[in-house]
Amino acid sequence: MNPEIGALFVQVAYIAASAAFILGLRGLTKPDTARRGMQLAAMGMLLAVIGTLLNHQIISYDLIIIGLVIGTAIGLPMGLLVPMTAMPQRIAISHMFGALAVTLVGIAEFLHYRDVPGGPGVIKMVALGFETVFGALTITGSFMAFGKLQGFISGRPITFPGQKIINAAIFIGAIGLWIYLIATQSGGPAASGDNGILLFGLMTLLALVIGVTLVLPIGGADMPVVVSLLNSYAGLAASATGFAIGNNVLIVAGALDGASGFILSILMSKAMNRSFANVLFGAFGGEVAAASTKSSEGLTTRSVSAEDVAMRIGYARNVIIIPGYGMAVAQAQHAVRELAELIEKRGGRVRFAIHPVAGRMPGHMNVLLAEANVPYDHLFDLDEINEEFHACDVALVIGANDVTNPAAKTDPASPIYGMPILNVQDAEQVIVVKRGMATGFAGIENELFYLEKTSMLFGDAKSVLSQMVSEVKAL
Amino acid sequence: MFSVIATALGVATVAITLVSGPSTTAASGTAGGTLVDAQIVEVYVFLLAAFTGYQIITKVPPLLHTPLMAATNAISAISLVASLVIAGAERPFYINVMGAVAVAAATINVVGGFVITDRMLKMFRKTEAPK
């Protein structure tokens, strides 16, 4: 093919791909258009890949084919077989793969420019450094997040004295190396005594360490923020790759991913009533437990049986179910759906109230309930449903705790004061399904459990709900 | 705090790019003009894409936040495009191998990401109309 026409075709393919990505994401603004939109985005990706394969710089396809085959052999089963309950882990590990690709590209480009007379120049060196630092810290950070979600690394915050100072020192070290490299390597390697490769390697290594130390002190329930943030970093690193190699489709796709991760992190932090800094450096659980002002002394809860609850919920007209991480752990979503269908069959109305940070990633509960065949028009956000609790007969809390704690509204001394919560206490009666009286992630007592109208149903969510289902059937 | 630093770095990157633009022109003389133009355009592309992304993504309902993450992750695996060139271009063999590993990693995200997003989106359904 005429190289000019080839180059033109590549550019057209990239522009079409960029448009497909943007339109695809636009599809995600509505559930009915989402699937189509994503198929369009996938077409865009295919087009960009085909366009690239026609690139005149490519002289051998052997390694490309090997890479594509291996990637597909791993990616396809991961896509098809990973259960929905493992979605948080899946998302976390995928950030690692994305960042790995970006980091390798960064390193390869850096090495390549050592053979190019004149070197990469300031701008490309800035981009290469950014790409490699953020890529590398996302690799290890995502792996740590994956480990915590999968359970082979403790989900509790891991802290040690001087942690913040050490973290800051490593971070400053990596940035210092980056700046030094920009100053010395932009014009290519010096003729003698050049240690560019060593320093670049050291910078990458430090960035890898930052990823570990960044995620170590972060607790399980803060994972929604961390996963979103890593999503954002993976995107920004991809965008930096675009700057480094002068490719606009990379810049566009990376910017979209970066923006998405950034928005999600902000939403998650807000929903937790915390600043970014607090999430990243706070190690919440331990500190706040001591600050807890309300104690449970002198307060009593009412413990009830599934049979008892079935009677009440079976005759309820208006039920709101509040799922939390406990539902995900017990994999109770199918039993929940069964119960909801039964209540509806008996003439009641069932809605689900979903707090933004319920679960371990943004939208976790929605995916689980959708998997269990709960129609999405039954799922409501905090803002949509919070006024509805007044009119509700029974609020059924399943494995959620802090997001229902009225102290967030009433007790200025509470560490969660100001956090947006679901107004469960406004319901006529409240039933809480919970494994035990342990406090939630914030380490504080939940007054809701001690209210007159609250009944506690202790046990594993799945078995308790299955029991309720058979009891309601028997009514 | 970390995110503030990250944001500041992002802004600094853009600023350096903008500031160093003219100086590069000065250093390389008149011939450098097109290169700088291209890099300024890249900054525009980034800013506009980030702005567009912000506008669209704030409208994605919380209902679809997990598919959104999976989708943006698959899309940002566009770094596959860069990996392909490195794996196949005329470079030392070890760099080609690095490129091939990057191709594999990015392909995992492209293939797995789009498949899993579709799987998730397929599950979201409305209440069926009463018969």
Structure description:
The complex is a heterodimer of chains A (475) and B (131). Chain A has 475 residues and is of the alpha/beta class. Helices cover 60% and strands 7% of the residues of chain A. Chain A contains 18 helices and 6 strands. In chain A, helix 5 packs antiparallel against helix 6 and helix 6 packs antiparallel against helix 7. About 2% of the residues of chain A have low confidence. With 131 residues, chain B is mostly helical. Chain B has one domain. Chain B is 80% helix and 0% strand. Chain B has 5 helices and no strands.
Task: Give the topology.
The complex is a heterodimer of chains A (475) and B (131).
Chain A: H1 3-27, H2 31-53, H3 62-81, H4 87-113, H5 121-150, H6 163-185, H7 196-215, H8 223-245, H9 248-271, H10 276-281, H11 284-291, H12 306-314, E1 318-323, H13 325-330, H14 333-345, E2 349-354, H15 364-371, E3 379-381, H16 382-385, E4 394-398, H17 407-410, E5 429-434, E6 454-458, H18 461-474
Chain B: H1 2-28, H2 33-57, H3 65-76, H4 79-88, H5 93-123
Helix pairs in contact in B: 1-2, 3-5, 4-5
Any idea what the shape of chain A is? elongated
The SSE order of chain B reads: HHHHH
Low-pLDDT regions of chain A: 283-293
Alpha plus pi helix count of chain A: 18
What is the CA-based Rg of chain B, rounded? Answer: 21 Å
Taking the sheet with the most strands of chain A, its summary is: 6 strands, parallel
Mean pLDDT of chain B comes to 80
How are the strands of the largest sheet of chain A arranged? 3-2-1-4-5-6
Q: What class, by secondary structure content of chain B?
A: mainly alpha
Low-confidence stretches of chain B: 21-33
Helical run tally of chain B: 5
Helix content of chain A: 55-70%
Short description:
The complex is a heterodimer of chains A (475) and B (131). With 475 residues, chain A is α/β, with parallel strands linked by helices.
